[in-house]
Amino acid sequence: MECVLGVVGRDFAVVAADTSAVQSILVHKTDEDKVMVLDSHKLMGASGEPGDRVQFTEFIQKNLHLYQFRNNIPLSTAATANFTRGELATALRKNPYSVNILLAGFDSDVGASMYYIDYIATFHKIEKGAFGYGSYFCLSLMDKLYRPDMSVEEAVDLVDKCIKEIRLRLVVAPQNFIIKIVDKDGAREYARRADTSNSPSDAATVTA
Amino acid sequence: MSIFEYNGSAVVAMVGKNCFAIASDRRLGVQLQTIATDFQRVFKIHDKLYIGLSGLATDAQTLYQRLVFRHKLYQLREERDMKPQTFASLVSALLYEKRFGPYFCQPVIAGLGEDNEPFICTMDCIGAKELAKDFVVSGTASESLYGACESMYKPNMEPEELFETISQALLSSVDRDCLSGWGGYVLLVTPTEVQERVLKGRMD
């Protein structure tokens, strides 16, 4: 039931993901950050097998840093995306990672860009995308409401609409989400969305 | 569902008079869901040689990268471009290398050979070449494409007529296949120029 979604606006990109860590019927935690900040100007939203997700995204992050240390220049978003795709493709027929990735970044020459890389290393540059069961609700919303040069407020509003739809219509829906943004000023957390309306988040033994 | 039908694809190539055309659909899907409507399936190897790769998108991308690598090495060593027939043999060999763990792709190769003679061929996922003099098809819409091409094709068509024929064959075939479509991409190659066109069909 994990959802990752992303949208590219005018000189920025937004990546949002749910923050639930679930194993079978148990909710381990409700504040798991699935959008990794790869470097100063890149975000990688990932969903899939929890171990693979953390290991693979950290692997990409460390390799990115290594490149920067060795070459004194950061890797571009396109190059990072192609590197990520290459690692997934190489592992595919040996020891595959079950991780779906939305990689968004900002480069001064190209602007903001986002790449869809699924778990079998299908690679495509996109303006709007989503993974998981939530994508069945989000993609059509985005098709209708997305415009190519949205402002940050409009893009986050679109993401909020997607989150609202997921909360309402997906069975066992994740309630809490994290939204991160990347633009010329860097990659950072933009907001968290927590649904405090129905169920209590404290344990039953906490005294009132 | 078969692994060849996971992403959905349609590729066709046709021979005309001293020219050829290669076309594909533009949908990238994951089973029933459409991810993108601008996915590229036809790739350039050199100015007079193109390859369309239908089937699993990830394998099409990996295979294309390997083929470009091999062709660039060939260019460095031989100081010339590969002939289409040679390239087809290369693709066939690469695919058969993976006989017991294949790339889930069916390539369609189209090029202008010696004396600008058009060459087209297709092969299955393990490299069984099939040369043709008229047209070759592959992808989830291949059965429809066979029918459409067989009825619409005439030998020795001029470039404009060839473009019209291949476009109509592609669009009418993908309209009967739920996994391919969302427009078309047609490349028409003559000895002097290359024309790329994007078709708008039924966007569903």
TrEMBL record, chain B:
Annotated keywords: Cytoplasm, Nucleus, Proteasome
Annotated compartments: Cytoplasm; Nucleus
Cytoplasm keyword on record: yes
An annotated GO BP: proteasome-mediated ubiquitin-dependent protein catabolic process
Main location: cytoplasm
This protein's GO CC annotations: cytoplasm; nucleus; proteasome core complex, beta-subunit complex
InterPro entries associated with the record: Proteasome_beta_3, Proteasome_bsu_CS, Proteasome_sua/b, Proteasome_suB-type
Free-text function comment from the UniProt entry: Non-catalytic component of the proteasome, a multicatalytic proteinase complex which is characterized by its ability to cleave peptides with Arg, Phe, Tyr, Leu, and Glu adjacent to the leaving group at neutral or slightly basic pH. The proteasome has an ATP-dependent proteolytic activity.
PANTHER family, per database record: METALLOPROTEASE TLDD, PROTEASOME SUBUNIT BETA TYPE-3
Family (UniProt): Belongs to the peptidase T1B family.
Quaternary assembly: Component of the proteasome complex.
The name this protein goes by in its record: Proteasome subunit beta
Organism: Zizania palustris
